[in-house]
Amino acid sequence: MTDRSLRVLQVIDTFAYGGAERLLATLNGVAPDLGLHMSAASLAPPTPERSLSFPVLQDAGLDPSYIGVRLMRQRNAVPLIAKKIRESRADVVHAHLGTSSVLVPLAARLAGVPVLSTLHHLPAPGRPLPARTKEKLAIRSAGRGHSLIFVSEAARAAAERIHGSPRPSWRVLHNGVDLSAYRPPADGVPEPLPADLGVTGDGPVVTIVAALRKPKGHEVALRAWPSVRERVPGATLLIVGDGEHRATLESLAGEGVVFAGSRDDVPAILRGSTLALLPSLTEALPTAVIEAAATGLTAVATTVGGTPEIVDHGRTGLLVAPGDDAALGDAVVELLTDHARRAELGGAARRLAEDRFDLRRWAGRLADLYDDALAARTAAGSRRMRVQRLRSAGVADRTTADL
Q1: Which CDD domains did the record assign (predicted)?
Q2: pLDDT of the residue at 126
């Protein structure tokens, strides 16, 4: 326990289904032990697709709410967010994702509250102009707050390559997961999957946990799956998650593919799986692969962004080039047909998760950043008061640098 007591408002672009949303719910599980009292707000107003994580955040005790910002260029966006910050009585506000990282630092300054921002994506060249502009604005705006957090070394390095020299506020902080919730199954034997998933037969189960969005690369896995089924009869591809791309993916799916939708029992699903798969085309640091590693489940993933910071090729899993369905299928078959190697890699993945991605260690470092942000604001306020007193006393040539 700690004598810290901080109110933290977490502001995120939407409550859609995604890793950043699940991370907030996970973080709140240990926040009280660190003296953090958290709430969550979505910038965007509620829609069915943008509210898929609302029940998860509500169950986690985050008291989720909506600010109602429809567009980044909305004229009253910053005042609306500032109003929410004041109403929350937050000591610190933490923005997540691109639009929040642009607008929330401006609103926090208006509200007089210190702000941190986390970018959960991988900066990349050649993106469409609107996305490139928003990313540039986010990095500039968030970089003027107390901390701009990148979730992987790869993301920080990409931001430096594309947007120039880093500011002193830039930090790298790997996300963490609850290692007790994502425990390996006893004796390494997969547990029975939840019956309502509809997975039949006793063949191996390869599980993708990801929002159903194009950058997650589900199409690559679906193209590879017929070849996997030819070589490993009875194998099932279990797709866990939801999103705007679901109808398209379902139209592409063949035999042995099961869509589970959004689930709140991911740890149990991973404990019942044979292999984790993430065919992403871009990633900053995929939470799903960390969760798989914590479960002692080896993964086949792609060589994008921060994924190699989780999957050490040949030691904790296998990596393939993004978009290469043949290589992906071969890697899946290689591990499905070699139980001993799969077990060896899974054990190493769990050890890496313990060393690098423990939830309490991550949350503790985040709490320290909150403390630092509040202390910096208090110190800045004290300096301003001293300057005002000096000016009142007629000492006009003193500057804050002298103090």
Answers
A1: GT4_PimA-like
A2: 83
